[in-house]
Amino acid sequence: MTKQKIPFADFTVGYLGERRKSLPVYPRGFLYYDFKVSKGKSEKVISWTTGTGIIDATDFEIGGKNYQLELRHSDKLGKLKENELAIWQANS
User: Fold this and answer.
1) What DSSP string runs through 3-64?
2) What does 60-80 look like in DSSP terms, one character per residue?
3) What separation, in Å, do the N-terminal and C-terminal C-alpha atoms of the chain show?
4) Could you list the mean pLDDT of each consecutive 10-residue stretch along the chain, which spans 92 residues?
5) Cβ of 90: how many Cβ atoms within 10 Å?
6) Is the pTM value of this prediction over 0.90?
7) Strand 26-39 to 42-49 pairing
8) Phi, psi torsion values for 27, nearest 5 degrees
9) Distance between CA atoms of 57 and 55, rounded to whole angstroms?
């Protein structure tokens, strides 16, 4: 995944990179993909992972609205390419 910023109508998202985090109960660890989401002066880092194999969206909030970020697989679009992501405004 390239480290570029992608502007959306309500915010900008940028890929920060990946990291592996191990836990005592799961020493193999989990691979996380980190993104910075910003709107004006508001910024937050969100992380997406497959965890133990369940591919699901990561929920986040910015500017008072809720969104979902999907990698690898999208509930609406199906399988995503290696360098693709999908972001949807979540239903309230």
Assistant:
1) --EEE-SS-EEEEEEEEEEEETTEEEEEEEEEEEEEETTEEEEEEEE-TTT---PEEEEETT
2) EEETTEEEEEEESEETTTEEP
3) 30
4) 84 94 87 94 92 81 94 91 91 70
5) 13
6) no
7) antiparallel
8) -65, -25
9) 7
